[in-house]
Specification:
By secondary structure, the protein is an alpha/beta fold. It has helices at 30-39, 50-57, 76-84, 94-105, 156-163, 175-180, 185-201; strands at 2-6, 22-27, 44-47, 63-66, 110-115, 127-129, 132-136. It has a seven-stranded mixed sheet with strand order 3-2-1-4-5-7-6, sandwiched between helices. It binds S-adenosylmethionine (SAM). S-adenosylmethionine binds next to strand 2 and helix 2.
């Protein structure tokens, strides 16, 4: 499959996808993109704006995974505003734009991932899988999430073990945060497997 992996981070969602796919990853932070390339040397890594890349290239792939920025949707926003007195921010419209664009203007199978937000869900059609919401062109089977770890407290060694991603010898600022940003590799595989079954059935 030709897969487009947008807002790639270090590739948590991609970690169990194996090497049989032709994967293009887009990440705008050059240091994170370099770490991704070291972890997944066979993937094509593009340092650039994933949002623009989606609209320009969505029809060149067999499957698209997108993880647009979640900071302004997360429940941490409530803590920042109500607990620490930060000024509230507009929730980023990129999530809405991509969901509506892909559902209406693209024939490519896709999944768009985001956090469970602090507000009542405003964008119809989300499927909750483990700890995230997904808007997808297909139904994602239920997933049993047995993970017990506390993501707020967990440190680099446990995160690496949890994700099966070894950053030893890879230089990237704020390793703990990039590891915490990872979608569970098992969930990434669960969703790609569902997309592949869907492609065979179509
Ligand atoms: C939550 S992380 C992605 C996690 C990834 N899906 C995984 O499972 O590892 C979001 C990433 O998107 C990147 N990013 C944010 N805005 C971007 C943009 N406009 N274009 C490309 N990358 C972007 C951030 O630097 C960050 O690494």
């Amino acid at each position: 499959m030709r897969i487009l992996n947008l807002y790639a981070g270090i590739g948590g969602n991609r970690a169990q996808w194996g090497e049989e796919h032709e994967i293009t990853a887009v990440e705008f932070d050059p240091k994170i993109a370099a770490a991704y390339q070291q972890l997944w040397p066979n993937d094509t890594v593009i340092v650039g704006d994933a949002h623009q890349y989606l609209i320009d290239h969505h029809d060149e792939f067999d499957f698209i995974w997108s993880s647009p920025p979640c900071q302004t949707h997360t429940r941490m926003q409530l803590l920042r505003v109500k607990g620490y007195g930060d000024a509230p921010k507009f929730p980023s419209g990129m999530l809405f734009e991509e969901v509506v664009f892909m559902a209406n203007w693209s024939d490519t199978p896709y999944v768009i991932e985001n956090v469970i937000p602090y507000y009542k869900q405003q964008i119809a059609g989300a499927q909750k899988i483990a700890r995230h919401l997904y808007w997808a062109s297909f139904e994602i089977p239920a997933y049993d999430d047995h993970r017990q770890e506390n993501l707020r407290a967990i440190q680099i060694p446990e995160l690496q073990k949890l994700h099966g991603i070894d950053l030893t010898g890879i230089s990237v600022p704020n390793k703990r945060q990039v590891l915490r940003n990872c979608v569970s590799p098992r969930v990434g595989k669960h969703i790609l497997d569902a997309a592949m079954r869907e492609a065979v059935a179509a």
